[in-house]
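Notes, p. 3: input format for complexes.
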Amino acid sequence: MSFGFPTETINEGKIKVVVPKLAAYKKKPSDYAPSKAPVFYNPTMELNRDLAVLALQAHQKFLGKEVWVAEPLTGCGIRGARFAVEVEGVQRVFLNDIRPDSAKISSVNAELNGVADIVEVTNEDANLFLSIHSAPRKRFDYVDVDPFGPPVPYMDSAIRSLRNGGLLALTATDMAPLCGVHRRACLRKYGGVPLRTEYCHELAVRLLTGCLTMMAAKHEIGIDVMFSHSIDHYIRVYAVVSYGAKVADESVQQMGYILHCFSCFHRETSSGIVAPLKHVCPVCGAKLSVAGPLWPGRIADKEFSSMMEKELEKRSFRQEKKLKKILALVKNEAEAPSTYYAVDKICDKLNLPVPPQKKVLDKLKEQGFQAVLTHFNSRGFRTDAPADIVKKIVTQLTA
Ligand SMILES: C[S@@+](CC[C@H](N)C(=O)[O-])C[C@H]1O[C@@H](n2cnc3c(N)ncnc32)[C@H](O)[C@@H]1O
Ligand SMILES: [Zn+2]
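Output follows (399 residues plus S-adenosylmethionine):
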């Protein structure tokens, strides 16, 4: 079949798909071929799609019934075709994209993989598509919002298109606002103030989750984060929605702020969206900086992460090693304190050589503190030890 632009067939997961031939759209090194091609395809997001397959399967098993799945911004339909082929218990997959060529190529890809009978492709604006599905009996059990930049423009209609207990997956690639480079844009889009700390990617997940919480609450819907991750240039949040004013209130009550001292690394969480905030660091007296309002609570569920690990064992993915590592780290840090320290950042500030991270963690544990690695940063670790103890240990190890 001809699409009027160069294409090729590639393999990912268990499927083969027709995608635009990216080499034809990269004329100079600075060209970002996925955005230049008439239909969007980004091979580097394979890991993101692998994790989505695992999360959807875990969710389907948890629900224990056949599920309806939607991808309102599907590009070439690769993600949706993978859901249809690789996830058990998927009854229907609804794919949509505003570009006519995307819809066309997505239909071809569904046929190519023998799933055209369960895949329905539309060519609408994503919000229109989601709104059409926001009536009872038309809703989905899983919605995957994977846009360019922020997912915010699609979140309200995505929430409304989910059944009670449905799972919402959100990608955000606008890391400059979320990580505090463009503070005003973050406040505007996500309704929270970011902070350029060493753990800004975690704050990004918390700001996006906070935004989701407040948006869902308007519809008397509460949220529960099952899994989240930050890789390369994007973050991802998977949250289950639950209908009811009470659960919505409980979610809103979990909102809060993270206060950070740039002078001594002290950080603390302040619960409640209307809580009076401290302005002075209780340790060193410097001015405290504020991130939020955001979601300071749990950003992954241990059991859900375990279910994803089990699903990975049953599959053979190209990036299996990397996936195993991410899943193990996310599971391990799921119940650890919020915010992490970065050894190199502390050493930079104290003008010290960087000690081996393992030694820092061992010392913390020796002294009775919790100390776990984080998937957010290979040099990061979470601990319940106060910042001055962490600094003391780092200093002693470099003496
Ligand atoms: C990042 S790509 C999606 C990639 C895809 N989810 C994947 O895993 O390969 C974003 C897609 O959103 C589509 N898009 C942009 N604005 C849209 C809108 N308002 N409604 C529907 N689709 C839209 C673009 O055409 C593009 O295909
Ligand atoms: Zn301080």
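DSSP finds 15 helices and 15 strands in the chain.
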